[in-house]
């Protein structure tokens, strides 16, 4: 989910001002897009031209799609899509499953809703020490991961 700090950094980026991002949002979690402050941030992100895509629409937060029943998954996807459409005026087309967990069943559900799954080629999960908000290896990890992606393409 976007934060004020992230949106300000994107708006005032010294290298590429007003660069755009895709935010995979949690639309029903009160600590994210389900609360008043979160809704305002989602509207701001959309108004500034960023893309809002679906992450979850479960009130309980970051729940894995693979752990939901077929009916729960369908209900969650459709609710999240409706939430995003209310903010942006457009039907979202992208989803990133929580924890990057998906299977044949969840892929079928995404496609039935007209969603395409987008994952990442690199991960920031690079040995973060719990309790700290920094990772001393993050920069070198990203550089190595991007070099690997570059070689692959």
Relevant terms:
153 residues; mainly alpha; TIM Barrel; 2 domains; two-stranded parallel sheet; two-stranded parallel ribbon; 5 helices; 4 strands; globular
The DSSP helix count reads 5
Arrangement of strands in the largest sheet: 1-2
Decide which structural class fits the backbone: mainly alpha
Mean pLDDT metric: 86
CATH-derived topology of the largest domain = TIM Barrel
Number of strands: 4
Number of domains: 2
Main sheet properties: 2 strands, parallel
CATH architecture of the largest domain: Alpha-Beta Barrel
- Please tell me what the overall shape is: globular
SSE sequence, one letter per element: HEHEHEHEH
Q: Looking at this structure, what is the CATH superfamily of the largest domain?
A: Glycoside hydrolase/deacetylase
Strand content: 5-15%
N/C terminus separation: 29 Å
Provide the low-confidence segments as ranges: none
CATH class of the largest domain: Alpha Beta
State the helical fraction: 40-55%
Gyration radius from CA atoms, angstroms: 16 Å
Task: Note down, in words, how this protein is organized.
By secondary structure, the chain is mainly α. The protein folds into two domains: 116 residues, TIM Barrel, CATH 3.20.20.370; 33 residues. The strands form two sheets. A two-stranded parallel ribbon has the order 1-2. The radius of gyration is 16 Å and the shape is globular. The mean pLDDT is 86.
């Amino acid at each position: 989910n976007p934060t004020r700090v992230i949106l300000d950094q994107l708006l005032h980026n010294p290298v590429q001002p007003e660069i755009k991002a895709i935010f995979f949002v949690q639309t029903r979690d009160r600590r994210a897009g389900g609360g008043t402050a979160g809704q305002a941030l989602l509207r701001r992100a959309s108004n500034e031209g960023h893309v809002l895509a679906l992450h979850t629409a479960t009130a309980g937060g970051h729940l894995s799609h693979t752990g939901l029943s077929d009916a729960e998954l369908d209900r969650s996807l459709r609710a999240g899509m409706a939430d995003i459409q209310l903010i942006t005026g457009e039907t979202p087309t992208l989803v990133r499953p929580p924890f990057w967990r998906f299977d044949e069943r969840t892929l079928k559900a995404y496609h039935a809703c007209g969603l395409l799954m987008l994952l990442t080629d690199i991960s920031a999960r690079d040995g973060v020490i719990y309790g700290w908000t920094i990772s001393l290896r993050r920069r070198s990890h990203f550089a190595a991961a991007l070099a690997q992606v570059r070689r692959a393409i």
